[in-house]
């Protein structure tokens, strides 16, 4: 999978490295700012109130 | 091109054929071919072609004969036989794949290898994502919440400066207040957690509000009022205002600031301390700062309405009665004016779990009216370590 992506990246080696970094950062940002905030309330880690 | 890629495959066969150098020059095609069947099994088919293209391989690493043979004999057949041979050789030693692995048609083994590799990569990726989630939960939400808490504090300071305080606008402080949900209205200081421990308390306890800071349970008492001033806060991430709530001991100060006053609450005696609270001279209850702190249990048979209010308790999440005006005794009929002014802090327990709730109860021991002529005056309790 990652090998396939690497081969699909165009350009010379430094160019490929830059593109790969950008891709990784984009995925991390997507996870941190979209996926995790959405999924977090559904997980039982951090409920602090009592209901009664 | 063929000679370059061939040697690796040939190497496997090399040991048994050390005498090779002497052989090739002697007999061009037929003789050595018989010695060759060893490498041939590796590419199970086409023995006919094998005998031609294997020869150069054996000779490859050695000096002179190599270039002679392939040129003469194999020119026409090489290209046809090569891709397959290369594909297999290339898989075995990955480095070679770079120059040769682009073109070959994938075999069944290739496909299996590829899918196993992909599954492996996906699993490693999933592990990294889970790790990233932990980092998010413990650190990133802290940064995000710090900004929100900062904004809430600035907004509160601004309102206090301009004299707008919903707590005061309600006339008689209490009954008819109208706090906007999500709006800050007080600050909490816990000197034990350091001089810089200060959080703006917001009205409401939804997830969104709690991201900005500790939240006041709607409908419970306000700071300083008789009844129970109940506040929830995160223990992990999101600023984690109540991270160390479990370290609070009896008589530790919980200071709440509003626009008009400072209210000093102190943690009630913990469950195990009630019995001997003031028994000996060095008992906890006789320390100066425990001056006005005592078990709420009365001498009545059943201990009175406040019999079950320890300084700290751990309960299941459904125990809503811990934030009742008379904690753990919601049916008690104590007139509002006679209710003890209490504070209750709730957070999750144990850390990283929603299994239980950690509850801390304290009672009001002192109220310092703010002197409008001397802004910036701080109550002495804030300096307690």
Automatic annotation (TrEMBL), chain A:
Q: Where are the transmembrane segments?
A: 20-39
Say if the entry is tagged with keyword Membrane.
Answer: yes
Q: Which UniProt keywords apply?
A: Membrane, Transmembrane, Transmembrane helix
* Protein's UniProt name: Uncharacterized protein
Automatic annotation (TrEMBL), chain B:
In this chain, composition skew of type Acidic residues spans 89-99
Quote the InterPro entries the UniProt record gives: Sortase, Sortase_Class_E, Sortase_dom-sf, Sortase_E
By its UniProt entry, which SUPFAM superfamilies does this protein fall under?
A: Sortase
Q: Where is the composition biased (Low complexity)?
A: 28-37
Show the ranges annotated as biased composition (Pro residues). 15-27
UniProt entry tagged with the keyword Hydrolase: yes
Return the annotated region ranges for Disordered.
1-112
Q: Does the keyword Transmembrane apply?
A: yes
Q: Which residues cross the membrane?
A: 118-139
Q: Supply the alphabetized keyword list.
A: Hydrolase, Membrane, Transmembrane, Transmembrane helix
> Sorted alphabetically, which CDD domains does this protein's record hold?
Sortase_E (cd05830)
Matching Pfam families: Sortase
Write down what this protein is called: LPXTG-site transpeptidase (Sortase) family protein
**Which organism is this protein's natural source?**
Streptoalloteichus tenebrarius (strain ATCC 17920 / DSM 40477 / JCM 4838 / CBS 697.72 / NBRC 16177 / NCIMB 11028 / NRRL B-12390 / A12253. 1 / ISP 5477) (Streptomyces tenebrarius)
